[in-house]
């Protein structure tokens, strides 16, 4: 299973005050807060960690069929931040989700997987109003509202993970 | 406090974050913060903090896990208020 999350950094700055009293404590563990305050750009680290948690949560949410607000239980570890990318692991109970993030001045996008197989994933990101489309495939949702891609020729079905925030939409699926 | 009174008190709390104002006007116990009101997930924590302030309660992490609908929010606040 795959999960992805995109954060529009301009939109996040407008919608959320990460320095609001009590806000960080409801989202991040003490160790994660240390990462935030030790970072060169604390605000960027906030959204990187948040997108990691969200991407991993989306895997859990899709597999369990449950919805919960429990960001503190999705724990970011081994976070390695580079100029335009970040790598890490999110741990939830006995599940371990490797993550890979792309960072630009405009957005942070994180992809979480159950196994380290990032090379096998197609990632589409766009900032237009158009609906995302993959040539040769039809996007549909099942009875639970979960998205899938169907090959128009063979009828073959594959899982797809969608996310959107502010100006950006993202789509990830196994190639 | 009556259910409707809770709903009326929650409405202005949810208003700044709700992207679907139509759904906000027709708030019921079943209204989902994400699916119906289209509240951005990062703002759910702001909703929790605002509810804590408005009702003068402390919402622990375990209760917060369930706080994804109007009804769940009301039940959590009621439980906290009655336990003191």
By DSSP (H or I, 4+ residues per run), the number of helices of chain A equals 4
> Given this structure, which CATH class of chain A is correct?
Alpha Beta
CATH topology of chain B: Non-ribosomal Peptide Synthetase Peptidyl Carrier Protein, Chain A
- The helix fraction of chain B, in percent, is 55-70%
Distance between the termini of chain B: 15 Å
The stretches of 5 or more residues of chain B where confidence is low (pLDDT under 50) are none
Order of helices and strands of chain B: HHHHH
Give the strand content of chain B.
Answer: under 5%
Biggest interface, chains and residue tallies = A-B, 18 and 18 residues
- Radius of gyration of CA atoms of chain B, rounded to a whole number: 12 Å
Distance between the first and last residues' Cα of chain A:
13 Å
**Percentage of residues in DSSP E strands of chain A:** 35-45%
Order of helices and strands of chain A: EHHHHEEEEEEEEEE
* CATH architecture call of chain A: Alpha-Beta Complex
- Average of pLDDT of chain B: 95
Question: How does this structure look, described?
Answer:
The complex is a heterodimer of chains A (175) and B (84). Chain A is built from 4 helices and 11 strands, in the order βααααββββββββββ. With 175 residues, chain A is of the alpha+beta class. Chain A has one domain: Ribosomal Protein L22, Chain A (Alpha-Beta Complex). In chain A, the strands form 3 sheets. In chain A, strands 1-5-4-3-2 form a 5-stranded antiparallel β-sheet. Chain A has a 3-stranded antiparallel β-sheet with strand order 6-11-10, with no helix packed on it. Chain A has a 3-stranded antiparallel β-sheet with strand order 7-8-9, with no helix packed on it. In chain A, a hairpin with a 2-residue loop joins β3 and β4. Chain B has 84 residues and is an all-alpha fold. Chain B has one domain: Non-ribosomal Peptide Synthetase Peptidyl Carrier Protein, Chain A. Chain B is 57% helix and 0% strand. Chain B contains 5 helices and no strands. In chain B, α1 crosses α3. The interface between A and B is medium-sized, with 18 and 18 residues.
């Amino acid at each position: 299973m795959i999960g992805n999350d995109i954060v529009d950094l301009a939109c996040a700055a407008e919608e959320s005050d990460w320095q609001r009293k009590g806000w960080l404590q409801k989202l991040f563990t003490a160790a994660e807060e240390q990462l935030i305050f030790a970072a060169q750009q604390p605000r960027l680290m906030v959204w990187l960690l948040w997108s990691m948690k969200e991407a991993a949560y989306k895997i859990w949410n899709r597999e369990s069929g449950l919805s919960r607000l429990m960001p503190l239980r999705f724990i970011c570890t081994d976070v390695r931040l580079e100029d335009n990318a970040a790598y890490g692991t999110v741990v939830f109970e006995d599940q371990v989700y490797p993550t890979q993030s792309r960072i630009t001045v405009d957005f942070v996008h994180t992809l979480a997987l159950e196994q380290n197989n990032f090379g096998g994933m197609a990632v589409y990101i766009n900032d237009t109003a158009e609906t995302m489309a993959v040539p040769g495939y039809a996007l549909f949702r099942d009875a639970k509202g979960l998205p899938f891609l169907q090959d128009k020729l063979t009828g073959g079905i594959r899982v797809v993970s969608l996310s959107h925030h502010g100006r950006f939409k993202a789509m990830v699926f196994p190639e | 406090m009556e259910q409707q009174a809770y709903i009326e008190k929650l409405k202005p709390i949810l208003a700044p974050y709700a992207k679907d104002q139509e759904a906000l006007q027709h708030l019921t116990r079943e209204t989902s913060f994400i699916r119906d009101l289209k509240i951005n997930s990062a703002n759910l924590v702001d909703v929790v903090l605002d509810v804590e302030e408005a009702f003068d309660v402390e919402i622990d992490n375990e209760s917060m896990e369930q706080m994804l609908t109007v009804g769940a929010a009301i039940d959590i606040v009621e439980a906290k208020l009655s336990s003191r």
